[in-house]
């Protein structure tokens, strides 16, 4: 019996999943402390969960809301469509229009060329800081203006930057710092010293004061009876002592790690900027948005409330712009516009986390690589038996060079998305036996028009059609009906009662977009579902 096999499926026998080596790359910081995960991470997770994870299969009486609709929403997303204007839906959005135009202007890339492939993957790597930071101009200007003012007036102050993970806070601060130093040099101001601290790396929260002290003075000068905090407090309370010190820009990233039960360290740190002769420009960064609510009122009562700059989650258009910016240097087209758009839309609706968007793009490229390997292997097989000559294979490869199969398509991104945001519905469908998957595929085809239910007899006709097209021996109608009951028990189908089994009415209990999404990693189903 022919089987429908897809090498890329993450399913392995026994239902366990193959560990995904790239997945670890996207986790912001796995061991972040509770506050972080119970605040913004939880917010993010719950947003992802509510967006992508419907209630457990059996508990939901109504139809599951599909998180995958976007896969189908993608404008006329025919993954194998020929490249050209007809494949691109020119939308009113300027970002999307630019996306479509660049697709039409540039030649295709050649993912078989390792140099091109590695170059593109590198450009999409999170660690690759872009030379020009787009979509954060407003936030960066506010931070820069705050710092410039402090330097110009030699006035201490504090600023708190908050926003969800992957929204460019740390990256922006790095850029602002560089611009600030250049600006100070050009405008004749003394550039501040900079201390960039990642608070998560401190073994003790109060070590932060020791680090600051190390930066401005030699610790051995200090009387051992005095703590670094006391020394700093004394130093910036007396004119003579502080006058010799340069301004110090302290960038305290992952500030939430400094939170202790009484928040004393955090308060003392911010209060250092209010001492009469303080020379500190303190910038705290955290992704716990509610941290501001928790500690700002107290700081206000202590008269050291920082200015706040919030980094909002990236929108779909911003994600597209950032991805385009990273790919701008390449003189060829790498992604189908709809594929980039799908990635951006999904990530924006889940978390707006740029790390995730980058990971999904890289993962989609790996899907394309895997497709290419598959096609080369399938050419190799017959040649072993003398079926295809080297010349024929080369010719086929050459032809495919100019074929659409060279770009990263919607289906590649869809698979990458499913790895990044797995939902139990999709997992369940992907781990069903082959014939039950065919039944679901038949149901999707049957319910594509206005039809919302069908009899087992009608479903059987659609099922037989699909089996015939793949030469898979079909199950009998009684067996089909039993399989529908199993799918009913799993909450995927609803099966009514009737005098005759074949007259029982069947309805889908999951969104058809979820089925399409779950099955499109398998080429056979993908083709089948694309046919009208
Ligand atoms: N505007 C942007 N342009 C290009 N790349 C970006 C942009 N914003 C974020 N990125 C990418 O996303 C990665 C994560 O950004 P960043 O480290 O600044 O996030 P963060 O807001 O500090 O997240 P966290 O709260 O988890 O620390 C960056 O390393 C960069 O690769
Ligand atoms: Mg950060």
Written description of the protein model:
- With 532 residues, this protein is an alpha/beta fold.
- The chain folds into three domains: 160 residues, no CATH class; 175 residues, Rossmann fold, CATH 3.40.50; 102 residues, Arc Repressor Mutant, subunit A (Orthogonal Bundle), CATH 1.10.10.10.
- Helix content is 52%, strand content 8%.
- The protein contains 23 helices and eight strands.
- A five-stranded parallel β-sheet has the order 2-3-4-1-5, with helices on both faces.
- Strand 3, helix 11 and strand 4 form a beta-alpha-beta unit.
- The N terminus is likely disordered.
- It binds adenosine-5'-triphosphate and magnesium ion (MG).
Compact description:
The protein is built from 23 helices and eight strands. The chain is of the alpha/beta class and 532 residues long.
- CATH level-4 homologous superfamily of the largest domain: P-loop containing nucleotide triphosphate hydrolases
- Say which molecules are bound, naming each kind only once: adenosine-5'-triphosphate, magnesium ion
Helix content estimate = 40-55%
Strand content: 5-15%
Q: Care to count the β-strands?
A: 8
Distance between the termini: 26 Å
- Structural domain tally: 3
In the CATH hierarchy, the architecture of the largest domain is 3-Layer(aba) Sandwich
């Amino acid at each position: 019996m022919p089987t429908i096999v897809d090498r890329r499926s993450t399913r392995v026998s026994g239902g366990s999943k193959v560990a995904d080596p790239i997945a670890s790359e996207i986790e912001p910081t796995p061991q972040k402390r509770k506050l972080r995960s119970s605040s913004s991470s939880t917010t993010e997770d719950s947003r992802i969960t509510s967006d992508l994870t419907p209630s457990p299969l059996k508990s939901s009486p109504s139809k599951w809301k599909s998180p995958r609709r976007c896969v189908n929403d993608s404008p006329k997303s025919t993954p194998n469509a020929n490249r050209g204007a007809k494949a691109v839906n020119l939308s009113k959005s300027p970002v999307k229009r630019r996306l479509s135009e660049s697709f039409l202007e540039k030649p295709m890339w050649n993912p078989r060329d390792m140099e091109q492939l590695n170059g593109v993957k590198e450009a999409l790597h999170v660690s690759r800081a872009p030379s020009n930071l787009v979509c954060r101009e407003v936030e960066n200007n506010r931070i820069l203006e705050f710092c410039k003012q402090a330097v110009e007036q030699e006035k201490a102050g504090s600023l708190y930057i908050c926003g969800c993970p992957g929204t460019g806070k740390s990256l922006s601060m790095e850029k602002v710092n560089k611009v600030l130093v250049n600006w100070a040099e050009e405008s004749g101001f003394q550039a501040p010293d900079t201390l960039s601290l990642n608070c998560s790396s401190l073994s003790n929260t109060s070590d932060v004061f020791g680090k600051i002290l190390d930066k401005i003075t030699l610790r051995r000068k200090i009387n051992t009876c005095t703590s670094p905090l006391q020394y700093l407090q004394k130093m910036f309370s007396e004119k003579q002592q502080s006058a010799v010190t340069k301004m110090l820009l302290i960038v305290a990233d992952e500030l939430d790690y400094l939170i202790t039960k009484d928040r004393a360290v955090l308060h003392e740190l911010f209060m250092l900027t209010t001492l009469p002769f303080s020379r500190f420009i303190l910038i705290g960064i955290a992704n716990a948005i509610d941290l501001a609510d928790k500690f700002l009122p107290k700081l206000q009562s202590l008269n050291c409330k920082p200015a706040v700059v919030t980094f909002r989650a990236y929108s779909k258009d911003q994600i597209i712009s950032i991805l385009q910016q990273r790919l701008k240097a390449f003189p060829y087209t790498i992604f189908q516009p709809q594929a980039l758009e799908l990635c951006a839309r999904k990530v924006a609706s889940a978390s707006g986390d740029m790390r995730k968007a980058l990971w999904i793009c890289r993962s989609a490229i790996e899907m394309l690589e895997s497709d290419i390997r598959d096609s080369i292997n399938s050419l190799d097989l017959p040649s072993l038996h003398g079926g295809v000559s080297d010349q024929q294979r080369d010719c086929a490869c050459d032809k495919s060079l100019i074929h659409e199969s060279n770009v990263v398509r919607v289906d590649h991104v869809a698979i990458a998305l499913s790895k990044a945001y797995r939902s139990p519905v999709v997992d369940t469908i992907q781990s069903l036996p082959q014939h039950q998957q065919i039944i679901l595929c038949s149901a999707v085809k049957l319910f594509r028009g206005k039809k919302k239910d069908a009899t087992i007899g009608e479903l059987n006709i659609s099922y037989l059609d699909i089996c015939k097209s793949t030469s898979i021996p079909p199950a009998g109608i009684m067996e089909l009906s039993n399989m529908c009951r199993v799918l009913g028990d799993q909450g995927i189908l609803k099966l009514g009662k009737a005098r005759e089994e074949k007259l029982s009415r069947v309805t889908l209990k999951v969104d058809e977009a979820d089925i399409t999404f779950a099955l499109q990693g398998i080429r056979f189903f993908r083709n089948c579902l694309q046919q009208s």
